Amino acid sequence: MGQSSSAHRAISDSRVVKTKYGKVLGRRFEFEGKQVDAFQGVPYASPPLGELRFKRPEPPASWDGVKETKAFAARGIQKDAFFFEKTSEDNLYLNVFTPAWSPCTTSGFAVLVFIHGGGFVSDSTVKYGDVGICEHLCTKDVVVVTAQYRLGYLGFFTTGDECCPGNLALWDQTFALKWIKENIAYFNGDPDNVTVMGQSAGGASVDLLSISPYSRDLFHRVIPMGGNASCSWALHNDMVEECRKFAEKNGVKDTRDSKKVAARHRFVAYCFGLDVFISVSEMRKEAPAKPMMIGCCSSEGLILCKFGDTVRYMVSASSILLDLVSRPSFQLLGDKFTNIGVQTAVLETLEANNAPVYFYSFDYFNPKSWGPLSLRWPFKDATHCTELAYIFAVGIIWNFEFNDTDKRMLELTTRMWTNFAKYGEKIGDLLSKWPNSSPETPDGVPFHFIKRVSAHISTPLKNFQLNIFSC
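Structure tokens predicted for COesterase domain-containing protein:
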């Protein structure tokens, strides 16, 4: 699994923070004189067990005394091919990493929230570490929050009525954002300066959160990475029918009885997208303008070499396509998997409102970052998830030693992301030459090309690329 690139250990306990529900105590780290406090395993909702299974989240119970929050909570129930840590249905916890020094402004530090990916069926906050966040993000004057949510059928099963209302994972994420709104000031965070980022399925989630009337007012900027609500795999046409079929397949004879269906399914990890009732493009038109930074990696489709069986459902790709080894073939798969959705999201957002949109392509990679998992790949390139190592300072899929070039890219990427969180459309000095996209751009949408510890504006992506899979 991914681990921190640093061997730092906590130097002491953190300060005690009093939240709305009780006091918490974490750990304190120090990096070149800068101290950062880490609070891990903080409950933001009641355990979704018993009568609360398949229900929307409810507030956590208050506690007396001081709760120790020094370790990650258990991962949600899931099926994962690589990571085998303890799992539990009781997984609605978040982690807060915050500078120990006082902010320069009375409003507090900018807040950067991360929603993990995993195809809606796997992953957790554990994989993204703690020390790397403290050392490379928090030391740049931001508070970072990572949050878990229910996965698979626990997060998306629905009967279409009040028994199992559906989209519980999104309600979990929304509840975490409400907790942040109410409590982040206690950690010196600014509740009026919150940026939410997510990758892959997490990218689709944060994009939907930014346009949903239930969550869009809880934060102010959004960073969908390697996935968004416009990707073909993000939404499901008829989740109720799929769930009824699944119930029948697993022994529920009368699927008209929602209570029997819900009682039968304790957990299952299977890949289903989100169920929404109006189009994403229409939701974008109704949503208030939010600055957006959005992008993907240069060869998103390359990951299908290893995870073809897992993502074939998502991209409807044939086995013949998955067996092709040419770079253009994988570019085509990447277009279907992510790239077209990214471009669609950019153009729909620009057409819907005047919010600044910053479009990037992450092309830097270290061939060692995927270890033996890349042996089946016909070529090496930045692919799905590659950018995460340079945001969290961890090997996301495979442990690898950061070389000097990796470390410089880590500094560049974390500076870009934290600048966006702090300044929004102003971006900051580092990205002062990065133009936001415009619907009036005649040749397409300009994007930021991030490669080999440099970043520059590249030739716009042409709009005709969007038409390849439209039929």
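The longest helix spans residues 327-352.
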